[in-house]
Amino acid sequence: MADPFLSIQHVRKSFGATTVVEDFNLDVERGEFVSFLGPSGCGKTTVLRMVAGFEEPSAGTIVVGGKDITRLKPNQRNVGMVFQAYALFPNLTVAQNIGFGLKVAGMPRADIDARVAEMLGIIKLPQMADRYPYQLSGGQQQRIALARAIAPKPKLLLLDEPLSALDAKVRVSLREEIRSIQKKLGITTIFVTHDQEEALSISDRIAVMYGGKAEQVGTPFEIYNRPATKFVANFVGTLNVLEGTVTDAAAGTVRVNSEQVSLKGKLNGSKSGDTLSLALRPEAISLGRQPGRDSSLSGEISEVHFLGSVIRVRVGIGGNMVSLDTFNSPATPPPAVGEKAEISFSSDDMLVLH
Amino acid sequence: MKSGKFWAWVVFALGAAYFFIPLIATVEFSMRMRRGEYSFDAYKVVLGDARFQATFGYSVLAAVFTIILGVLIVVPAAYWIRLRLPQLRPIVEFITLLPLVIPAIVIVFGYIRMYGSNSPLPFLATDTGTNALLVIGYATLALPYMYRAVDTGLRTIDVRTLTEAAQILGAGWGTIITRVILPNVLIAVLSGAFLTFAIVIGEFTMASLLNRPAFGPYLQNIGANRAYEPAALAIIAFAITWGCMSLIQILSRFAPRSANRPN
Q: Does residue A207 fall inside a structural domain?
């Protein structure tokens, strides 16, 4: 396997006695789009700022394209960055903002003008060249900030929660635009977000962070369907967690609310009598017995939420509460609260949280 | 509501009268040089006086150097404190206020003792040195105004993010200060500059004790020996100050606007 384009190895960052990033490791391939996903304070922005050069790691190395940049100043790294607060220079026009990095690099005026025009074309704002930042909407400002970041053709593009200051509709369209530009230019990108939907929808891989560490690094499919830790399972998507007791470790059977569920090959050294946390995504559960679903549990419907195309039903099973989604059908009335109900699922979809 | 408005106007009228009546009286008196009729003779005498031109020119030059010195010291200092040393801000603010509490006479006597001809830094041994010391003294006197003006300007922009945005685009400190920070606080710097100008033009204590041919001592000298000319000079000095204030107002309309502060 070829050397990774960006390699972050054993990076640690402490502020005084507080360690905010602990032994962080990540390899990113050239042209890959990797998201750092995690709650506030998990260290994702600190890692990004260390890659940018705004923070110096307390330990570890950061290598880009085979060159160790750990101790280089931000202006020596050839890295582009888009900030949450846009950070456009208020005194400069859109064209001057986009051309700023090129001018600093000493590029001839004609080349700057050509590159600025190209960038304005890429972000689909060719008519905005002479406007000032205050004359633009938030979405337009962030697109200009993106154009400014990629104009000098950086080796690496860093996006620090670039969509969080925008309204929901603009956020969705801009994230798709960012991804399409990134693919078109083939630029290696790190995207920091606390929004799981954003991360799942546009990333090649996601590093889910918690407590200064990468809990799991994987494709959105792996992160969602095969969470490696309890934190990842809880943080990404909606999850039903059920308590179960191992009844026969060798046979892989677990008792959940007096019913047996077979989890052969998933118990990972658990002994008979151990209590386990078992997780199921709402979309993996069906109301009533369904063909192909090998396990079922009985309970009582406690809540019904009509959400338009989907109906979210909450079923009480012993001491556990399970949410499941069913599609709305005009011919079938939604289930009623208080009804007895059976839920079914495939034991393959059940996750054992460690 | 109506009664409140009435009393507001009464207070305003009283304040305006307190301010304008002495001013009008001074204008009126300055125009009575010619017996029996109003004239601008006092102004002609003052403006035609070679000493007026010399002292005014000297003070304008001193003001220009004071402004340059003030900008060179205050802009990088205020910027760095906002960017890297915010914990020092209260201390620096206190230091910049000292010239308002310590009388100019104390500062200038300190200078005379510290920088006399026998000291290791004999500023007072030459005219150029004394002029330089006067400019340094003026910069100290103007510090509270210049620092506050620049700091207020810096408060309106996101100093840290703009600095980082420029850094990541390859800019060094010189480029960041001259092309990103200074243009965005230029109006604030100009406000500080005009306040400095107004202070330097009328300053008496330092210029007099350092024996410099500045406008302040000239004003005092004329005031002590003439009748109508001091009134004319007072009005001229007033017009200069008001001119500076008006310029601040006009220039502030051209301040770069951020998206968060469109107007």
A: yes
